[in-house]
Amino acid sequence: MRFREYKTPQEKLQQDSIYLIDQWCGQYEAKIREKGGIGFFVGGIGPDGHIAFNTRGSDIFSTTRLTETNFETQAVAAGDLGGIEISANRLVITIGLDTIVHNPDAVAIIIAAGEAKAGIVKQSLELSMTNVYPATVLQKLKNGRFFITKGAASKLTDSTDQYYFTGEWNDTKTERAVLDLCKKLQRYGHRITLEDLKEDKYTSQIPGLNENTVKNVIKSISDKIDRGMSEEKNEVFLHTGPHHDDISLGILPQITKQLHENSNEAHFAVLTSGFTAVTNTFVIETLRSAKKFLDNGRIQMVKFEDFYSSGYKLKMDKDVYHYLTNVASDNAEERLRGLCHRLVRAIVFTFGIKSTLQLREQINEIITVLKNSYDGEKNPKNIQTLKGMIREFEEELVWAHFGVQVKNVHHLRLGFYTGDIFTEQPDKKRDVEPILNMLREIKPTKLSLTLDPEGSGPDTHYKVLQATAEAIRQWSLEEDLSNFKVIGYRNVWFKFDAAESNVIVPVSLGDMSVMEDSFSNCYMSQVNASFPSYAHNGKFSTLAKNTWVDQLSDVQLLLGKNYFYQHQSAKVRSSHGLIFFREMEVEDFLIEARELEKSTEGML
Are 104 and 189 contained in the same domain? Predict the structure, then answer.
């Protein structure tokens, strides 16, 4: 609109608005420069390296302006604005890179926390000034500084040197150094020579370096794969996730193997309500569908005498079975009817509905409230509950793929999860006790949880981890947990490397297909990826699959491709991805949780 003639009166108004904004930006820039420039600047850094909305590719001489953003920035803002659909259609006004550094005596501080920022911090600090990494412009300032956490600094050359050159050497360092050398040289492990090891800055530090060093690392990684293929019998699994879909995106292929063994018992627990991931638009459209089904007499359960008193609580498994049967038959309308059945039950439960007339009125009222709310606005508590129950139904659908009943899918709805921008810390009574009571009731022999490092992924991951750690600590005072294991997994927000994991699970194309299909068919509110990761413009399931494939590529470079396609096990021969996770004793897990807590003290 800036550069072409307008065609309609509305376009003229839009064009005039743009020119007025441009003029305002120019005047604002002039006032800053009249005062000698900015004296003090403090800000964060985006996943693409942006500062003050100067996204990747911004001119290092840019000034205050109205501008578009890129996908990474839109994805990060989606949670506050109500979805990528909203943030993708928003322009921003930002000061420019040259505005920030115009005053050569300015103090400019960039704050970065968490290992998820480590890559962009390294590029911003160690590369020459470039518009590809906007924060490099701070090199112009003698008082430009990055204030970063240990995790955010972890990929800096100085940090890598410190990791390898200080402290006790261990097997993890050896494996990581050899794996990284394979990547650096783009050479298979069996082609790495002793001379290569001696010439490398880090592998040269391996104690007792010899001709068998790489062979020993190959053997160690191979043992981890063997561990990932071992049969698990007579176990009681409790798989937990901070949000709905975390478990599936993290370790679904490992879980399907466990579920195929009849001697195992499996439970699934999602610890927060997850309502913030459900958009107003999705709820409004589903409510309108429910009204149509009601009007056409196609939600027949409301006709039973006891439905509004107690019947709405019954036959939850039937809703699940109805929905999945129509996934199989590819009947989209009947799938929608199955969802609407569960939505009606949720409304009756949440709002205390006593009649069909009251139900219709309540549906209309919810639609009105949501239509009058701006996207990203905090919903009333009862609508938060309703959104959360939609997510809970989705989770039940995923595990019903494998015959898991609704009673084995637990919804804890921990109280710290409120939908506020800054949520509370977990409370020992309110948030720990529900987990502890679940442990007492189920008595699992293995428990899985997300084990993301400092400041990576959603803040909820960290808080759920700490609440779970405290519950396990308290449970350990009551029970002998010498045979109890904790499985730490990661998914789309961060990933283990092969060296720090101790179990590697081969993933076939069939495994990937099951995960993709169950995600697309069951996580109905998430298929359109309203709240995507900045790493991928699309579904989380596709990002998870890409992660598994990348992990195979890393290990293949060490083991060689022939290790996989010539392996004696069909499971390995059919693998086209790998999952990494860590299995821990209770004490090891509690120590790691405490170390994580120390690293984030004062940050959250």
Answer: no
Give alpha helix (H) positions in 142-211.
157-165, 171-185, 194-199
- Answer whether 451's CB lies under 8 Å from 247's CB: no
Give the pLDDT score at 603: 44
- What number is the average pLDDT over the span 343-371? 96
Residues shown for the chain: 604
Residue reference for tokens 């039940």: 396
Tally of domains within the chain: 3
Within a domain: residue 65?
A: yes
Query: Is 534 domain-assigned?
Result: no
- Which amino acid makes up residue 424? E
Structure tokens that stand for 356 in this block: 């069909």
Is position 79 within any domain?
Answer: yes
Query: Tens digits of per-residue pLDDT, 504-537?
Result: 999 999 999 999 999 999 999 988 877 888 888 8
Among positive and negative, which fits the CA dihedral 352, 358, 359, 364?
A: negative
Q: What is the pLDDT of residue 454?
A: 65
| CA 511 to chain centroid | 20
Percent of the chain exceeding pLDDT 90 equals 81
Same domain, 23 and 103: yes
* Torsion angles phi and psi, residue 488, rounded to 5: -95, 120
In a domain, 129, yes or no: yes
Report the CATH number at residue 46. Answer: 3.40.50.1360
Q: Which two tokens stand for residue 499?
A: 């060296």
Three-state SS annotation for 24-70: HHHHHHHHHHHCCCCCEEEEECCCCCCECCECCCCCCCCCCEEECCC
248 and 517 in contact (C-beta within 8 Å)?
A: no
Structural domain harbouring 194: 168-226
Asked if residues 108 and 574 have their Cβ atoms less than 8 Å apart, the reply is no
Q: How far is CA 245 from CA 155, 327, 455, 512, in A?
A: 29, 18, 20, 15
- Give the containing element (helix H, strand E) for 575: strand 575-585
Final residue belonging to a domain, choices 117, 148, 179: 148
Residue pair 18/24 in contact (Cβ under 8 Å)? The answer is no
Shared domain for 23 and 135, answered yes or no, is yes
Indicate the pLDDT class of residue 601, thresholds 50, 70 and 90.
low
User: How do residues 238-268 score in pLDDT, each as one tens digit?
Assistant: 999 999 999 999 999 999 999 999 999 999 9
Single residue among 336, 366, 397 that ends a domain in this structure = 397
My answer on whether 20 and 104 are in the same domain is yes
Same domain as 206, residue 326: no
Start-to-end Cα distance in the chain: 43
pTM: 0.91
